[in-house]
């Protein structure tokens, strides 16, 4: 019985995801169309800046982008291209956008993966400790630091770390050498400050979520039952309280990943010169490289959508109490 | 407020409101951090309102007085003389004329920070107001109309929620050009999703309560039920939501300005920080000061929002502490 409604639910979620993806693509298309600068304008500005003949190129671009066709046909073409994985041509780097992304995604992935993993482990452990020792001195210290952590602007923290550790102390260099292999000691060392910058806010957030989720569950009757039947405190906390607190936590962590972490990683990459997707998009903004900026926004959005979808489906497996009609 | 109310019911209502206000104020007052936060926010508002009358023009450039450190600090400036081919080292000390120092163009940091406070507060309050209004409207409508409308509005909310907020902001500013009005509008028009969901779920649970049924039985119209019964009952939720979303808005504007996508005609904290980042080795205070302001502002709103949430939550037993 359970299998069948679950399959129906997954199908329904997939359908929603497709509708949301379509909505996102459509909103982006509308934004491009109502924007005061069309992609062609930006392209032409680029051509003119290079001293080439604008009039000659205009017609070529119009047919390349299909701008001479009716709007509805353009919309159809746009959807078709995206469905085929064709994200356009990056003229500031002279390569297809998809290749550009293929070359640089790993740096973003590395930064986000390391920061999220470390932040989740440290944040959850500190949060658990804080909840179990509620109102103790260490609880107050952890709570104060987590309040400071969620309030500190992460881009400012990055600049301060550079000021302290690179300018004043000279411990870390602040540029990333792409010629060296990804996991070389030099480049891992260059990742220390960025991971700290991106991770601080996350740790603080997770401490707060974990603490309140643990406290909610600690007051429940089943905890008293578990203690009454003589289970050791370790088992009560680790097995009964923590497992129940984890469920809402996982959703929050995954949702943060899509909505907040991407923005933070964008800024962190710019500050520390990590050649990831945020840096690429940032460069493209100032080079007027339209397709790249749009492609990276779309990729970020689709990833967020995918993460939410996986979380929702995983949730139904982990928590058998959940039922959706 | 509420001019449409009939004269007879007014004294009772105001009395009730004042009593309720006092009740919540007393509960909020117990949280010292919340009061500290409120105090800092009021100080900031005052600073932004009357500060400009007492400080220099934040855009006034004076190269003779560039890179002056804050009061109590000193820096060394080495000047290269092309004729004698020698370096002369000048010791620059902080002066009372520029208590917080000057930047690389000789602009007064204090004046710039006050201008930044005004911009941050404007952006934070206006964008949040827009976002909360849209969120409340969509949330209440979705809960109250239900069915097909609910489905469409919530799917639209899902779509807006999925956009990584900052990437969308960068995309729109990139396409339409940087201006403060646009930044406020975009943050307001995209930041309502959390409020809409929360208010919808609260309104959904309220909709089936007895007092709503009673109001309907007495013949109250839909509009009256929404305005007089639903919205006042989610008001506390809306206030907490608004207080806690202001810091995010302020940070978003600063982050945009920091990476050079802010309004170049305004002296905001993010823009000062952007300049400061480039001169870390010659004038560290230009990067440090706006960040400290930003940090305390965000902290103040977080403290206040947390305190308000506890005060409004009938389940939190403040007296027991």
CATH first level of the largest domain in chain A: which class? Mainly Alpha
Order of strands, widest sheet of chain A? 1-2
Supply the number of structural domains of chain A: 2
* Estimated structural class of chain A: mainly alpha
* Unreliable residue runs of chain B: 1-15
Biggest interface, and residues per chain?
Answer: A-B, 48 and 43 residues
Task: Name the features.
heterodimer; A: 325 residues; mainly alpha; MetI-like fold; 2 domains; 13 helices; 78% helix; flat; B: 321 residues; two-stranded antiparallel sheet; 11 helices; elongated
List the helices and strands and how they pair.
The complex is a heterodimer of chains A (325) and B (321).
Chain A: H1 2-34, H2 39-49, H3 54-65, H4 71-83, E1 89-90, E2 95-96, H5 97-132, H6 137-151, H7 154-168, H8 185-190, H9 192-218, H10 221-228, H11 233-272, H12 277-286, H13 290-318
Antiparallel strand pairs in A: 1-2
Helix pairs in contact in A: 1-13, 2-3, 5-6, 5-9, 5-11, 6-9, 7-9, 7-11, 9-11, 10-11, 11-12, 11-13, 12-13
Chain B: H1 10-29, H2 32-54, E1 74-81, E2 86-93, H3 109-145, H4 147-162, H5 165-176, H6 180-190, H7 193-207, H8 210-217, H9 222-258, H10 269-278, H11 284-312
Report on this structure:
The complex is a heterodimer of chains A (325) and B (321). Chain A has two domains: 2-93, no CATH class; 98-318, Orthogonal Bundle (MetI-like fold). By secondary structure, chain A is mainly α. In chain A, 78% of the residues lie in helices and 1% in strands. Chain A is built from 13 helices and two strands. In chain A, strand 1 and strand 2 (95-96) form a beta hairpin. Chain A has helices at 2-34, 39-49, 54-65, 71-83, 97-132, 137-151, 154-168, 185-190, 192-218, 221-228, 233-272, 277-286, 290-318; strands at residues 89-90, 95-96. In chain A, helix 6 crosses helix 9 (192-218) and helix 12 (277-286) runs antiparallel to helix 13. Chain A is flat. Chain B is mainly α. Chain B folds into two domains: 25-67 and 102-312, Orthogonal Bundle (MetI-like fold); 69-98, no CATH class. Chain B is built from eleven helices and two strands, in the order ααββααααααααα. Chain B has helices spanning 10-29, 32-54, 109-145, 147-162, 165-176, 180-190, 193-207, 210-217, 222-258, 269-278, 284-312; strands at residues 74-81, 86-93. Chain B has a two-stranded antiparallel ribbon. The radius of gyration of chain B is 25 Å and the shape is elongated. Chain B starts with 9 loop residues before the first helix and ends in a 9-residue tail after the last helix. The model of chain B is unreliable at 1-15 (pLDDT under 50). At the A-B interface, helix 1, helix 6, helix 7, helix 11 and helix 12 of A face helix 4, helix 5, helix 9, helix 10 and helix 11 of B.
């Amino acid at each position: 019985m359970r299998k069948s409604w679950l399959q129906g639910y997954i199908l329904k979620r997939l359908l929603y995801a497709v509708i949301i993806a379509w909505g996102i693509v459509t909103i982006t298309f509308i934004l491009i169309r109502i924007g005061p600068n069309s992609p062609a304008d930006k392209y032409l500005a680029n051509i003119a800046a290079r001293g080439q003949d604008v009039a000659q190129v205009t017609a070529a671009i119009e047919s390349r982008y299909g701008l001479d066709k009716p709007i509805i046909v353009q919309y159809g073409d746009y959807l078709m291209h995206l469905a085929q994985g064709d994200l356009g041509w990056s003229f500031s780097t002279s390569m297809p956008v998809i290749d550009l992304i293929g070359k640089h995604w790993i740096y973003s992935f590395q930064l986000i993966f390391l920061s999220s993993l470390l932040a989740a482990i440290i944040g959850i452990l500190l949060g658990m400790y804080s909840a179990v020792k509620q109102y103790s001195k260490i609880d107050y210290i952890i709570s104060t630091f987590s309040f400071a952590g969620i309030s500190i602007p992460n881009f400012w923290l990055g600049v301060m770390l550079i000021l302290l550790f690179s300018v004043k102390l000279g411990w870390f260099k602040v540029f990333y050498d792409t010629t060296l292999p990804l996991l070389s000691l030099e480049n891992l060392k260059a990742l220390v400050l960025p991971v700290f910058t991106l991770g601080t806010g996350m740790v603080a957030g997770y401490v707060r979520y974990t603490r309140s989720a643990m406290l909610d569950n600690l007051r429940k009757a089943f905890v008293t039952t578990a203690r009454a039947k003589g289970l050791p405190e370790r088992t009560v906390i680790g097995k009964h309280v923590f497992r129940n607190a984890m469920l809402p936590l996982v959703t929050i962590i995954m949702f943060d990943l899509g909505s907040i972490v991407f923005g933070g990683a964008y800024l962190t990459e710019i500050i520390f010169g990590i050649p990831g997707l945020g840096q690429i998009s940032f460069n493209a903004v100032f080079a007027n490289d339209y397709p790249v900026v749009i492609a990276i926004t779309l990729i970020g959005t689709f990833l967020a959508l995918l993460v939410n979808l996986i979380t929702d489906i995983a949730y139904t497996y982990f928590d058998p109490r959940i039922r959706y009609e | 407020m509420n001019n449409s109310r009939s004269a007879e019911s007014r004294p009772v209502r105001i009395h009730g409101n004042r009593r309720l206000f006092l009740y919540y104020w007393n509960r909020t007052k117990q949280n010292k951090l919340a009061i500290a936060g409120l105090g800092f926010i009021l100080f900031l508002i005052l600073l932004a309102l009357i500060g400009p009358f007492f400080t220099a023009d934040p855009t006034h450039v004076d190269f003779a007085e560039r890179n002056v450190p804050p009061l109590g600090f000193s820096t060394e400036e080495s000047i290269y003389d092309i004729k004698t081919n020698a370096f002369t080292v000048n010791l620059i000390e902080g002066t009372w004329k520029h208590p917080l120092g000057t930047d690389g163009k000789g602009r007064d940091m204090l004046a710039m920070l006050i201008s930044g406070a005004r911009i941050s507060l404007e952006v934070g309050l206006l964008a949040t107001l827009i976002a909360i209004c849209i969120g409340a409207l969509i949330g209440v409508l979705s809960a109250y109309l239900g069915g097909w409308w609910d489905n469409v509005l919530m799917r639209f909310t899902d779509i807006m929620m999925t956009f990584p907020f900052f990437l969308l902001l960068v995309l729109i500013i990139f396409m339409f050009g940087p201006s403060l009005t646009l930044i406020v509008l975009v943050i307001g028009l995209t930041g309502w999703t959390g409020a809409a969901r929360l208010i919808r779920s609260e309104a959904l649970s309220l909709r089936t309560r007895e007092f709503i049924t009673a109001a309907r039985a007495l013949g109250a119209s839909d509009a009256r039920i929404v305005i007089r019964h639903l919205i006042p009952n989610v008001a506390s939720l809306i206030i907490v939501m608004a207080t806690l979303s202001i810091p995010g808005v302020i940070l978003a504007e600063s982050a945009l300005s920091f990476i050079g996508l802010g309004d170049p005609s305004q002296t905001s904290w993010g823009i000062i920080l952007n300049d400061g980042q480039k001169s870390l080795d010659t004038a560290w205070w230009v990067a440090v000061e706006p960040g400290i302001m930003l940090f305390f502002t965000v902290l103040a709103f977080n403290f206040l929002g947390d305190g308000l949430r506890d005060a409004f939550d009938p389940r939190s037993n403040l007296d027991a502490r």
